[in-house]
Amino acid sequence: MSSQDEQLPAAAAAAPEAAAADEGMTWWYRWLCRIAGVIGGMSCAFAGLWNCVTINPLNIAAGVWMMLNAFVLFLCEAPFCCQFIEFANAVAARADRLRAWQKAAFYCGMAVFPVMLSLTLTTLLGNAIAFATGVLYGMSALGKKGDAISYARIHQQQKQMDEEKLTGSLEGQA
């Protein structure tokens, strides 16, 4: 084991905690995104394999792309499923350091490409959960919704500022 391999587990363990703390994702939402990614990977793999059983070259290309999507989803969201791949933990650690909007754009883009190649029911349904994973990450990038008390305070402050501007402009005209 090299010194780089010894440092990787420590960096991999610290990266998810730092990324989660920065984005404010709760533990259950983080697990929801991971589970959606794994289910999306299974969906892409099965639909991609089914899509390859044809003579249409665009369907075959879309099926191969969907199986590649499944591999990437498994690699990023569940590296323990890819224990036979030497670089799986390094890729997962790097994916955990990405911001939520970057993951959202990546996963949604990966899911849209096969649909553009071959618009069939198999590609639509196969990529739907992978796309939904990207949407979940995108929603986490937007942040948490504020409470009603904070919105009421902000609204009241804006109302006071508007009234002060209105009275100031009326005094200036008089």
TrEMBL record:
<feature type="transmembrane region" description="Helical">
    <location>
        <begin position="70"/>
        <end position="92"/>
    </location>
</feature>
<feature type="transmembrane region" description="Helical">
    <location>
        <begin position="31"/>
        <end position="50"/>
    </location>
</feature>
<protein>
    <submittedName>
        <fullName>FLOWR protein</fullName>
    </submittedName>
</protein>
<dbReference type="GO" id="GO:0016020">
    <property type="term" value="C:membrane"/>
</dbReference>
<keyword id="KW-1133">Transmembrane helix</keyword>
<dbReference type="GO" id="GO:0016192">
    <property type="term" value="P:vesicle-mediated transport"/>
</dbReference>
<dbReference type="Pfam" id="PF10233">
    <property type="entry name" value="Cg6151-P"/>
</dbReference>
<dbReference type="GO" id="GO:0012505">
    <property type="term" value="C:endomembrane system"/>
</dbReference>
<feature type="transmembrane region" description="Helical">
    <location>
        <begin position="104"/>
        <end position="137"/>
    </location>
</feature>
<comment type="similarity">
    <text>Belongs to the calcium channel flower family.</text>
</comment>
<dbReference type="InterPro" id="IPR019365">
    <property type="entry name" value="TVP18/Ca-channel_flower"/>
</dbReference>
<keyword id="KW-0472">Membrane</keyword>
<keyword id="KW-0812">Transmembrane</keyword>
